[in-house]
């Protein structure tokens, strides 16, 4: 294959990925230099150095994608089987450039009926938890989920359902640029950190997602089932608030 054909394929892949995700991921960053195949049929690909040792990314501002446009795409999504059983898609809600992005697992019954995240009993408790440390979805937070449609009977979202939906959350994070991320429960924590997480053992610890501090803590639903977890969850929130205050003071 010659260099021109390779560049054509590369451009098609890059365009398709940018359309799907809303931004150009690091794996497509920069402009590779393609060479014609040699007699051994090896492809020569090199990426110019940016001088900093890191890839150059293209921002969503350059692509003109807004959170409203992204959420409109989410509302039309039929990537997985959850699209067939949902009543409403739940893209997320909150403010632009939030202090904190709160990430849950997926919508429940009330969320599915209203099309809004965390509006049932767990949502009421979440709002109280956030208010206790000066946070609110109407002023300085954005709330989203790993999957945007309710799994039947509130079961855990399957790995393929999470994978089908995750690029939407990636793009939300890319657009919103939160200062910190608070993960509610095991599934959100594992998907964001890329690690196997025991909430009982790792709650209140700090991780990173693309340079953004991340803390896993107990899901509000778990606190409703077991009130003994409220004390450690409160200690997590105080630690989270202290870290956020330090970021805001710098």
Give your account of this protein's structure.
The strands form 2 sheets. Strands 3-5-4-6-8-7 form a 6-stranded mixed sheet, sandwiched between helices. Strands 1-2 form a two-stranded antiparallel ribbon. The longest helix has 20 residues, at 230-249. It is 44% helix and 12% strand. It contains 11 helices and 8 strands. The protein starts with a helix and ends with a helix. Its EC number is 3.2.2.27. This is Type-4 uracil-DNA glycosylase. GO terms for molecular function: 4 iron, 4 sulfur cluster binding; metal ion binding; uracil DNA N-glycosylase activity.
Describe the structure concisely.
By secondary structure, the protein is α/β, with parallel strands linked by helices. It catalyses: Hydrolyzes single-stranded DNA or mismatched double-stranded DNA and polynucleotides, releasing free uracil.
User: What is the end-to-end distance?
Assistant: 52 Å
**CATH architecture level-2 label of the largest domain:** 3-Layer(aba) Sandwich
Q: What sequence of helices (H) and strands (E) makes up the elements?
A: HEEHHHEEHHEHEHHEEHH
Overall form: globular
What radius of gyration results from the CA coordinates? 20 Å
CATH-level-4 superfamily name of the largest domain: Uracil-DNA glycosylase-like domain
Which CATH top level class of the largest domain fits?
A: Alpha Beta
Strand order of the largest sheet: 3-5-4-6-8-7
CATH fold naming of the largest domain: Uracil-DNA Glycosylase, subunit E
Q: For the residues shown, what is the average pLDDT?
A: 84
Query: What is the total number of structural domains?
Result: 2
- Total DSSP helices: 11
Domain Uracil-DNA glycosylase-like: 91-238
Enzyme class: hydrolase
GO molecular function: 4 iron, 4 sulfur cluster binding; metal ion binding; uracil DNA N-glycosylase activity
InterPro entries: UDG_Type-4/5, Ura-DNA_glyco_family4, Uracil-DNA_glycosylase-like, Uracil-DNA_glycosylase-like_sf
């Amino acid at each position: 294959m010659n260099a021109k054909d390779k560049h054509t394929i590369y451009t098609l892949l890059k365009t398709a990925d940018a359309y799907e995700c809303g931004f150009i991921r690091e794996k497509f960053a920069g402009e590779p230099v393609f060479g014609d195949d040699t007699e051994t049929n090896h492809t020569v690909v090199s990426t110019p150095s940016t001088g900093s040792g890191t890839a150059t990314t293209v921002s969503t501002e350059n692509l003109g994608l807004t959170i409203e446009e992204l959420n409109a795409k989410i509302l039309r999504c039929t990537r997985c089987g959850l699209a067939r059983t949902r009543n409403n898609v739940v893209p997320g809600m909150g403010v632009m450039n939030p202090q904190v992005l709160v990430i849950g697992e997926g919508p429940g019954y009330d969320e599915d009926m209203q099309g809004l995240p965390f509006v049932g009993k767990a949502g009421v408790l979440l709002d109280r938890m956030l208010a206790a440390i000066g946070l609110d979805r109407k002023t300085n937070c954005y709330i989203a989920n790993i999957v945007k449609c309710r799994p039947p009977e509130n079961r855990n979202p399957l790995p393929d359902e999470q994978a089908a939906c995750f690029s939407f959350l990636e793009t939300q994070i890319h657009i919103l640029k939160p200062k910190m991320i608070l993960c509610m429960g095991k599934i959100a924590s594992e998907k964001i950190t890329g690690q196997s997480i025991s909430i009982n053992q790792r709650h209140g610890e700090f991780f990173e997602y693309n340079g953004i501090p991340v803390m896993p803590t107990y899901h509000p639903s778990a606190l409703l089932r077991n009130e003994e977890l409220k004390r450690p969850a409160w200690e997590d929130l105080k630690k989270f608030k202290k870290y956020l205050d330090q970021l805001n003071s710098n």
